[in-house]
Amino acid sequence: MGALIQKKISITNEHKQFIENYKKWGFSDQSSIIRKALNQFINDFKIKERKTLIAQKGQELLSDYTHDKDLTVFTDIDGDDFL
User: Fold this and answer.
1) Can you give the pTM of this predicted structure?
2) Which residues are within 8 A (CB) of 22 and not within 5 positions of it... i.e. 6 or more apart?
3) Which domain holds residue 47?
4) How far is CA 46 from CA 5, 20, 43, 49, 51, in A?
5) Each residue of 39-49: pLDDT tens digit?
């Protein structure tokens, strides 16, 4: 099990009220709300990070996919019906 981290954090009254009503939201304890929120934040952050990296790599390869004859050879048939 992970180490217990003890550090004071500042939260708004809205946050405090939400955490105090943990049972209303279906959580077993107050810390489970924080764990769930942090896990969701980490997942969202990782997705955003991957999308940014994909966009950067796409930009890096854009000139290859527009000028390299080995990669653009089939663009002549773009839009043709294959059925």
Assistant:
1) 0.59
2) 28, 29, 30, 32, 33
3) 37-73
4) 23, 29, 5, 5, 9
5) 999 999 999 99
